[in-house]
Amino acid sequence: MKINGVSYRTIWLAADGAGVEIIDQTRLPHEFVVITLRSSAEAEAAIREMWVRGAPLIGAAAAYGLALAAREDASDAGLAAAYQRLHATRPTAINLKWALDEMIAALTPLPVGERVAAAYARAAAICDADVAQNAALGEAGCAIIAALWEKKKAAGAERINLLTHCNAGWLATVDWGTALAPVYKAVEAGIPIHVWVDETRPRNQGASLTARELNWHGVPHTVIADNTGGHLMQHGMVDLVIVGTDRTTRDGDVCNKIGTYLKALAAKDNGVPFYVALPSPTIDWTIADGVREIPIEQRSTREQTHITGKAADGTLVEVQLSPDGSPAVNYGFDVTPARLITGLITERGVCPASREGLLGLFPERG
Ligand SMILES: CSC[C@H]1O[C@H](OP(=O)(O)O)[C@H](O)[C@@H]1O
């Protein structure tokens, strides 16, 4: 995507062909800082501390993390140890395990001396595939928006109002994004679209990252408190919802940022179409029941009790929100059952949130 006219991905190979460069998303929206990862330990930290985040980008970062690990020790044991360290960074996004499995499958058949070059090549291919998949799902989602716009335009509407939760934009992937890819494609198609941006407590990925993206891209948007969406839906101010996902089961249950389930309930109650956008590496074909089988990350309660923002003098400051001694709990994700989902938007098209729907698009998984 473009930032002030300059094209960026979220992760790329450094000019020296060894380091891996990322945008430090903990510094956004107020500071744009690029970090060069030079070790597998730094790649682990980047994922664990959410310098990079978002399921597809976590996968891409893990892939390059294993390439950095291969430079350190390309033996079977060395790669296996790095796999475990990277896999342990965050538990929910299945893209992490998917990417690590892809890397191991590509490297272990090779002589040790060929593994570093192959690792960087496979990591680059994983990134390129993510970009292509998200562009394709963006087109599929844009068709949904376009059809809805035709109806709304005929009824006299001036724009399409879309609500999204958290950040499932290009900052959550290598490029294009998932939930926001259809928005960018709709903007390219000249459809007047406005985005309601859930701030998404506690880390505020919506307010700090989705708003940042849409601001850079010139897409009309409004940041709202997480609890506002239901009210907007009751008053006909939301035409559709598109969110991302960190892991979707073979039966269509969707794990996404905490609060997604509540938006889906409100959408169902108000007859608002609720779509989930995902590239296929986000599908966990090994599980069916998302509520019971998907591990939900719990993060530091400091993310809940404190917040960081820009002070009047432009410096970034952290302040405490709740009183000393008041306990907090910080669940990172929840699961939206398939019954609440209108459709899944994938790189192969749109399908119902069901085993039959997914197998219709991915028959090789049958
Ligand atoms: C396209 S994946 C985006 C997905 O990832 C976010 O989680 P986190 O920021 O904690 O990595 C959130 O669940 C988004 O929907």
Automatic annotation (TrEMBL):
Keywords, sorted A to Z: Amino-acid biosynthesis, Isomerase, Methionine biosynthesis
Site (described: Transition state stabilizer): C166
EC number: 5.3.1.23
Stated family: Belongs to the EIF-2B alpha/beta/delta subunits family. MtnA subfamily.
Reaction(s) the record says it catalyses: 5-(methylsulfanyl)-alpha-D-ribose 1-phosphate = 5-(methylsulfanyl)-D-ribulose 1-phosphate
Protein purpose: Catalyzes the interconversion of methylthioribose-1-phosphate (MTR-1-P) into methylthioribulose-1-phosphate (MTRu-1-P).
GO molecular function: S-methyl-5-thioribose-1-phosphate isomerase activity
Protein name per its UniProtKB record: Methylthioribose-1-phosphate isomerase
Organism expressing this protein natively: Phaeospirillum tilakii
Annotated residues for binding of substrate: R53, G54, A55, R90, Q205, N256, K257
PANTHER family: METHYLTHIORIBOSE-1-PHOSPHATE ISOMERASE
Pathway membership, UniProt: Amino-acid biosynthesis; L-methionine biosynthesis via salvage pathway; L-methionine from S-methyl-5-thio-alpha-D-ribose 1-phosphate: step 1/6
Entry superkingdom: Bacteria
Enzyme class: isomerase
Active-site positions on this chain: D246
InterPro entries: IF-2B-related (IPR000649), IF-M1Pi (IPR005251), IF_2B-like_C (IPR042529), Initiation_fac_2B_a/b/d (IPR011559), M1Pi_N (IPR027363), NagB/RpiA_transferase-like (IPR037171)
